[in-house]
Each structure stands twice: as structure tokens, then as C-alpha cells.
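Fold this sequence, please.
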Amino acid sequence: QSYQQPEDNAGPTHCGHRLNGFLEELPDMMDVRYWVPHEEYVFAPCWLQGTGGQDASFKDDDGQVIVHPAAKLAEMAKVVDSQLLGVDDITTLEEVNQAALLHTVRVRYTKAQVYTRVARILIAVNPFQSLPIYSTQYLERYRNAADSLDLPPHVYGIGLDALNGLRRGEPRNQAVLISGESGAGKTETTKLVLSFVSEACGGSQSGSGVQDKIMQTNPVLEAFGNAMTVRNNNSSRFGKWLQMMISGSLSIQTCTVTDYLLELTRVCSQGSKERNYHIFFQLIEARESQELKSLNIQDSKAYSYLNNGVAKAPGIDDARCFEELKEAFQALGFSDKVQMEVYRIVLGVLNLGNIQIQEGDVAQLKDDTALQLAAKNLGVDAEGLKRPLLKRRMVVGRDVTEANRTGAQAKTACDSLARLLYGRLFKWLIQGINKILSDGKSCSGNFFGVLDIAGFESFEHNSLEQLFINLSNEHLQQHFNNHMFAMELNDYKAEEISVEEAITFNDNSDIVTLIDSKGGILSVLDEEVAMPKASDQTFLSKVFKAHDKHPRLVVPKFTGGGKFGIRHFAGEVTYTCDGFLEKNVDKPPEEAPDLLQASELSVLQEIGKLIAAELAESSSAGPGKKKAKTVSSGFRTSLASLVQKLNEADPHFIRCVKPNAEKVPNIFNSKLAMQQLNCSGVFEAVRIRQSGYAARMLANEFIARFRLVLPKAKEIAISFCTSNPMDKAKVFIEALPDALAPLGGVQPGEIVLGKNKVFAKSSVMHRLDKARDMAMTTYAVDIQRFQRGFKSRKMLSSCKEVFGELRAWCAKNAFYSQPGSAHTALAKLGSAEAVLAEVAKLDEILAKADSLPMPLPRKKDVEKVRERMQNEAKEISNLKAISASIDPMEIEKALARVKDLQLPATAEVEALKSRLAKLTKQLPLAKAMQTALQAEDLQQLQDVMDAVKATGLHLSPEDWIKELSGEELAGNVYNKLEDVKAKQKQDAIKQRQKDENKEKIYTQKQNKQTAGFEVEDVAMERKRSRQKSRVTITGFSVAEQQKVLMELLTACHEFDMARLEKGLGEAIAQGIESCETITNAQELFEQMSSEAGLVQMMSEKQEEVAKSNSPEALRCLQNLVNQAKRLGVASDAVASAKEVMQQGVRRRARSTIKGNVFFDGVSLEDLELVDRAFSDLSNFGGLKDASKWKGHHRASLFSARDKGEQTMLLHSKTEIKEALTKVSRKEERVAVQNFRSILGWMSDRPIPEVQRLGYQQDVVGVAKLSATLADEVYVQVMKQLTQNASVRSSLLG
């Protein structure tokens, strides 16, 4: 009410003053935000509203009021604005706490930025959807970067860090360790890392195929080793270490796969919301396929091992995965026979689960149907399979006895055999893969390894498998701790370096000791296996007795329940030890080797031999030899070997995070994520990176690596200033601020000296690496400058030489300078062979010119001369080849080409002209004589003889063309004519003899009859005269003649050379008299046989198409282009006309062909135009010359390179070396890379499924860049659809 209207134009200013004054009166604390514990977000940035009483009230961004005790306000961290932005690297924040870390990851996830960096550690959140961030563009961007820190965080950045470790300085082994709980995306992350490294290390010494083979292992390993669990639809139920040997030139030489702890219990039983291994369901989905029909596979409900779980895994297409599995088997070299054996073994495992056994003291089968099926699929004798299942063999010394199993024991034996077969088959597959990937070679160099192992597991029921998995994760966490914390702290202590704050971390070494040490839980288990009358309970009692005081062991109040707990790094897990001893026994049944070696399947025979060798080795082991007789000891031995390899390599860590338990996109469960982040150790890594030193190097190594960043004079001075490395390092570090000034210099405390080492923080290391790269680039440019100068001078010398050869050739062969036959190559060189010899010399010169950097002067003119010389030689050879031809149109075409080429009138030309004239007359006569001889008609025979007499050939029979056999035919016709006349006279006489009239009357009748013959002859002559005006000598009717003339009219209208040839040939052969239509057709035929005529007509039709774009004009232009290509002339005019024609067809198609092409409203005429214009890919405008196209890369070192017309436009699974169409030099690389994207999208090249979406977008993006690239993309896709044997690939294309 006290408000007064301000003066004019003063309103806003006055209101602003009042508002500012009001805000200034607010308490300072209202401007402060805190990280407040939150029910949903764990921590949320909230504004402090007030601190009245014992509570403090906050308001979050959603307006929700949150109340916490005021006493805890001091414990809450204040919010810094940068913590809310979702930065790339957590270590760049001024202040880092758990809340800031979680919020950064959460904010980035909501922006579909699933990667966050903690220095060199990558946090990867599973998006549960395909994202377009794995395309070729992304891969190239990271592959060509100097440092991953220069780009946003990405899984490719970890691959780049590993590659840099292999190629910079002294190369070292590299290992990528991928961890996280089930469903966090470890398997897909592993495939992406492998894909990046395989792409970056292209062109290995063993052929580019080794990279693809590495990627092809994924479908095999996933089919046999992955299954659906409650946490993950595609969970790896085994761990794997994939190790590639990398040569000094960064090429992949060999690769090996090591597996760890396949979960065999899953084969026989799974949870209600889980399912068995994927391979079982893949076979069921594909059971109707040709190769599997004979196995008589049933639905999943028919198998005991499958019907307790679910049959379908969301997001997994079992039928498609089976197709991928077959392709992978094929690419890895597994024959069709071996593949079928593998499928039979898998099916045999399912059959074993269906064997029904009666309960009782003596095991008996309820029904032997399942047993018979199992024996059939496994290729063994049914009785031989039945015996070890129902009876137990006992070996005491040399005595072997058998005892009956109980029903329960027999069922256990069935399950044990099923697990044994599946586990050994998995091992056999991995051994086969390793044999193929290593190819029996031993290679030198460094290794690059990727570890993908199951994350921490804690279920409602945890058994020995979970203990093994969690132990492996404890070892990996210990390795992480040692690398990130313990080693660093020890270095600080040894070098007497102090850090800003005390660095602590959660040490889990005591957990590893509890489980995996002498006297540890697993050692007790191994000892208990060998003890008589041992049980799971006695094992548990010994564990409690030995470790009941251990802080990490949880001893239940009631120790007889068969359970114990361990406080793992990731949380407390309770284990149920039922079956521990039985699962720890790693001795196959005594009967197994004999049974499997007797199988008809070669795979089982090999497995049987391996088991027999293991049993023999175990039984022959002396007291001093250590043998892995238990599952635990074998697993711990392989785990120790893995840890040793990891210790020999520079580690790179990827921490995978599962954002929600529902496995759906766009949902971030902060509580679940916080739990995983706490277990990952990244928070401690943030603190040590901020307060500690990221790099520590010996003084000499530090100087040797970074000496390039100093000026040359300074570098030399430091090298000779002193012999003490630390003194050198001190002088070196003092010179660094000036050297790094353009990049930000060196801040105090960023580099310090220890006793023997130089310590540097990550910030300055990043600047040092960048400065070193810049310095190396400068040197590299100098080296390139000298090398390119030398190369250019050498090339210039070559250019002068080649250009000189060309000038000499042109001076010697100065053809076609003037019109006329005297100036042709044939007239000057004398023969076709001599012409081709000169063409060959020119080809050698042009081949040399193609490798030159400079364009050849007047190259097009020279190529036209070459083309005409080739055509001359071709036509001369053709003249000789058709010297005995009886096809007048063939001779007509040859003479027309002779005329167009202005060839001299040689004897061959004159002979063909004479032959053509004779053929025009004699061909109809020969055909007419053949017809008359068959008809035996007097009138027809007489007409033919009259025609022969009219030509005078009866007087000079030697003029007949020998090949027509005219003289012989004429003689036959004359003889036939006389025979017919004689026969008719004899028939008349016989008739007269039957007449009963008197001799007088008979005589009178005879006179009248003779007169009648004369009258008849006159009548026949008249009739022949009338028919000549309508029917040809060959008997061709008027209607048939009209049909031929109509065909000629249509051919002339559409410039259709094929129909023109056919019509003119028919007219000559049938003796149709010349008329205006035939004359016009002959003129057009001659014009279309000449280069000048074709060029003129194509030019006219191009103008017509540009104006009207009518289907008639387009059809004519198509026919003219085809004729010019058939003759091999006017290449420039053809290219121009083809482009105009195809553009015209496109314009029409856009306006006339819309939607479904099967609708009645679609113009069939336009569809036909499209088909004619584009169905033959070799006619596509702008296509490169197939004979000069560089072809495909080799699939392997010793395979032939695919090139030329046979492969240029046909489906291929190997990359192209250059574009298929004529694109600019700048676009060549884009075109080649695009073909790789098409190979990936169409599954012709093995890539992770998550990459395919990015590849698809890459292809579409390239097509939008320019019209020429759009055409290139079209041709590439159509190439891949031509003779493509893969149904899936074709559908994707």
C-alpha cells in the first residue's frame, strides 16, 4: 500500500534496487548449498533454508524439504559449482568427495555420456541400449589422437593408452582389467577394447584375417560360456584372459585365450528366473534348419536340464546368434563335420538329463529311450554308456570290481557325466581356438591382454563357485591397490617424498590370506578331500578352529548349519558349504576315457585321450611331484599365473557400473551405483591423484624421455654438465618452466626430486607429453621434408624419362593427323600384329605414367589414339574370322566399322563386300530351295528354279557361296522338279487307262488333255505372277513381311541396335524387297556403327532429355550408350551420356515411383527405365575402369588379392583398396573407410553388436556429404548385395 508510482522510465531501475536490497538482507547462509544425504539420490545438492533449533532444513532442486540434525551440518561438504556440471575427469574438480563423484556420474548418465574418467581410470556405466558412440569416426578420432586425455572419456581412450604404452619409449606389456558386478557391461566393454586394438593394429604379419578371427571368438565363447542370470541376460559364466602378442610394428602376431572356472553346475540346474547356456537354446531355435533336422531336436520343455528355467532371454535372438555361431566356426576353421559333432555332444548332454532312474538300493532305468538317444548323439554304445551310470568301478591295486549304484547315486552319475562332457567340450573349443589364432608360431614382442572375469557375487545361496569368483576379484582388487596405492606409498617412503595429506586405502590383503594361503580356507578344503570319512561339516569345523579369531571370517552362532561368512572388500557374503568336497574333486570317472575314446565322434575321441593322459600322469606322479588333484588347487595355480602376468604389465583399469537392477535404459539407481563405486576403489584413486604424484621415473629415464622439449643448445649443455643423474635432473627441471611456458609452464610442487627418482603430478605430465609430441612432430616433419624432397626429385626424373618415351612414341606413330585411310595405323604399320605391338609399347609407357605424381600431358588424346589402334587391329582380326560367315548382318557390321575407321580397301575388305552382295541374293534362294525340297510342290519347285535362272547361277554354278551348298541344292531341286513332273504324267496315264471309252474317244481325250496341260501351265504362270506381288521366294507371307517392317520401324524409333540387326537380317534372309523402311533402317544401322554418328546422336538425345525428360528419349539414350560400349568407342561421350541418362531416370523415379512399387498406380514404364539404368551395376555412371581398379586387400598373407572385373562389383568380406567410383582424392579415404563400415553393419566383418548402430549412422552420414559420395555408397551397398550368400547380410544391406 505504501508503493508509489515511480517517475517515467524509472520503473525497472527502481524495482531492481528494491529486489537487490531485499536479497542483501537475506542471511549469508542462504547462499550456501550442501551435499545432503538423500533417500533417492544418496547425496543431493540442497540449499540450506534454516538452522532453527536442533534441526537444519534444506531444499533440493525439486523443491522437496529435507531435515537433518543441525549437529551434522559440520560433517556435510559444501557444494562447489563445478561439481554440478558433470565434468569429464573427476580429478579436475577443486574438491572431490563421494557425493561429487556420484553426482558427476549421474549427471553424465542422464546426458547419455556413459563414460567418466578418474585420471587414467575409466568408469563405464551400462546404458542398456545401443548408442551411436562406437562408429568409425569415433574410432579414427581416438586412434589418431596423441593422448586420451585430449579427448572426452571413452573406452577407446583406454585402448589408446595401452597402444601408447606399446609404441612410446621402451615398449612394455599392457593389460586392461575390466571389473564390475554381473550386468555392468564387462563383456561388451571387453569386445569394444578388442575391437579398437584390432583396428588400430591392422595389417599384421600373419594377414589382416587374424584381427577378424579374434573378434570371431566372441560368438563361440558367448554361446558356450554365457547364460541368463537374474542380474544379466548375457552373463559370462567364466572368466577369460585374452592375450595378443604385438610386434614392434604394432601388428598382431598371435592370440591365446585362457578360461577360468566355467560354472558347470548350471548345466544341470538353474534358478527359476535364469536359464542354461545359450548354445542349448540356439540349437532348439534352429532345429528346423537343414543341418540340424536329422538330430530330431525337441522344444526346451522336453529337456529336464532346461525346463526349470526360462526359455527366452530378453534382448537375445537365439536364431540369429546361431547363424553368427556358424559363421564364426567357419571363419575359425572348424569344418562342417566337426561343427555337427559339437552339436551332437551338446544334444547328448541334454539327453543325459532326461534319463529316468528308479529310486532304490539298486539303480535301474525306468525307460531306456533317453539313454538310446544320448548314446546315438554321443556316438557310443548304449550298453557301454549304461554300465558306468548304474554301476561303480572300484580299483584296488590290480583288482577291479564293480558295485551297484543306488538310484540317487546313478542320477548323480548322470549329472556328473553331463557336466564332464560340457566342461571338456568347452576346454576343447578353447584349445582349438588357440591353435588357430597362434598358428603354431612362437613370437617375440610385447603382449596386450584383456581380462574379463565375473564380478563379486552374492546370492541367496552361495557355494564353492561363488567363493572362487570372489577370490579372483579379491586378487584383482589387491592388484589394483598395489598398483594405485601400496607401490606408490612405498616409493614415497623410499624416496623420502612427503605428500600434502596422508593417503590411506582399504587394504584387502588379509582377505586374500584368509582364503588363499597356506592354512587358508581353500588349503583346508584340499587337505580334507584326501582325508577318509571327511565331510563338509568336518571341513567347516577345521576352518572355524583355525580362523575363528580372524576379523574377516563370520562365524555363525549355530556352527552346525553348514554356513560361514566372509567380509569381502565388496561386502559380506554367506557361503553354504554343502557339496564343497564333492565339487572340489577334479578326478574324472575311471570309465570316462574308455567310453569317450570308443566314440565315433572325433571330438570325443580327442577329449577321451586327454582325460586318459591326465589320469595316467596323475597316477604316475611320484612323492616329489605336485599335481593339481583338486578343482581348488588347479584354479589357484591358474589364478597365480594370471596375477604374475598382470604384475609384468602396465595395468589399465575400467570399472563397469550397473545403473539399475531392472536392466533398462535411462534409469539411474543412485544407491546401487554408490555401492559399486565404493567397492571399485576409484574414490581413493581420486585422492591419491590429487594429493600424490601420478608419475615416478628414474632420473636418467626422465631426462631421456623428455630431453626433446628443451632447446637443442640447452639439451647439449645439460648432457655434459655433470655425471651425476640427480644433478642433471635438477638442472633439467630448472629449465622446464621456460620450455613449457607456451603450454602453461610448471607450477611449484608439480615436479620434485627424490633420492633416485623424479616425481611428477598428472597435470605437468600431461603438458610434458604434449610438448614431447610437439617436438617429435617437428623432427618428424624435417625427416619427412628431406624424404619427400628426395622422392620428388626421383619422381621428377622418372617423369622426364616417361614423358620422353611418350614423345618418342608419338613422333614415331603420328597416326590420324588427317582424315583418310592413308593416315591410319594399319596403312602405316601394315598388319594387325604390328599395330598391337605398338599398342603394347604404349601400354608400358602408360603403366609407368600411372605411378607418377604428375599428370601425363595430353593423356586423353593418347588414350583415344590407343583406343582407335586397338579397334583397327580388332576389326582386321574380325575380318579374317568372318571371311567364311554366311550371316549378312555380321559382315554388314564389320564393313560399317571398316568404313568408320577409314581402313584401307585391303583384299579382305573387297572379298567381304563381294561376299555380302552374293549373300544378299543367294541366301534367300538357298532357304527357298530347302523349303521347296521339303514341300515337293511342283509350282514351288518351278518358282525356285525360275529364280535361280533369273540370277544366271545355272550358267555359272561356281559363283555359288560354298558354305550355302547352292550348286548342290539347285541340282537337287532340278531333279526333284523332273521327278514330280514325271510322276504327275504317270498318274494321268493311269487314269486314262481306266477309261472304258473307245479308242477314238480315248484319242480325242488325250489331245484335249494335252491342251489342258498347256492351259494349266499358262494358268500356273499367271498364278505365280500374282503371288510374287505378295509372297517372297522363301514363302514369307505379306503379314509376316509387315511384322518385320514394323519391328524395324520400332527399332529405328528407339535406336535399338539389337532389334535393328535382327530385323535387317530377317529381311535379307527372307528376300523381302527393298522399301523405304528397310532403306532407313540400313542408314541408321550404318550411322550407329560409326563413332561420329553415335556421338552426334547421344549429344542430340542428351539435349532432349534435359528439356523433356521423356521416357522415349531416356530409352533412346540408354540404347545409344549400350551400343557405344559394345563397340568400345566414344568413352568420354558415353560417360557424359550415362550420367545424364541416370540423372534423368532418377528425376522421373522420384516423381512417379512412390511408396510400394506393387501398387497398381506405379508406372511400369518408369520401373523398366530404372531397371535398365541401374540393374547392371557395371553401367553405373562414374564407375572406375575395372581393369585398373586396385582391388581388395588380401584376406591373409598368402592369399590372392581380389581385383578386376570378376570381383569389383561382387560381394566380398575383405576391404577395398580404393573407391569404386571416381571420387576426389580427398574423398578416397572416406570411401574406403565407408566400405569398412558397410562390412561391419552387414555383419560381413565381426564387430561388437553395440558398434553396429554407429556404423549405420556413419554410412548414412557419408551419403549426405556430397553427390559423388552418395553414388559411391550406393555402388558399395549394391556390390555387397550381388551374389551375397548370407541371408542375414543381404537383409541388413
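The chain has 47 helices and 23 strands. Residues 175 and 645 are 9 Å apart (CA to CA).
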